[in-house]
Amino acid sequence: MKFVFTVNDMTCNHCKMRIENALKTSGAQNIDIDLVSKKVVFDSELSKDALVSIIDDAGYTAE
Fold this sequence. Notes:
The chain has 2 helices and 3 strands; from the N terminus they run βαββα. The chain is of the alpha+beta class. It has a 3-stranded antiparallel β-sheet, covered by helices on one side. The radius of gyration is 10 Å and the shape is globular.
C-alpha cells in the first residue's frame, strides 16, 4: 500500500537520511522524500499507526 506523510520538522539531509533508514529497516520500499514539500512517499505493508510510530521513534512527527 502507498503512504504519503508530511513531516514538517524534517529540515535537512540528515533528517531525510534518518527517516529513510528507519523506513527501510521496517521493510518500506520505493521511498521518496522531498525536503522542500516535507513529503515522504513510500510503499509498505505495515499499518498507518505502525508507520507513524516508526517515524516518531526516529525523532520526527508524521502527519
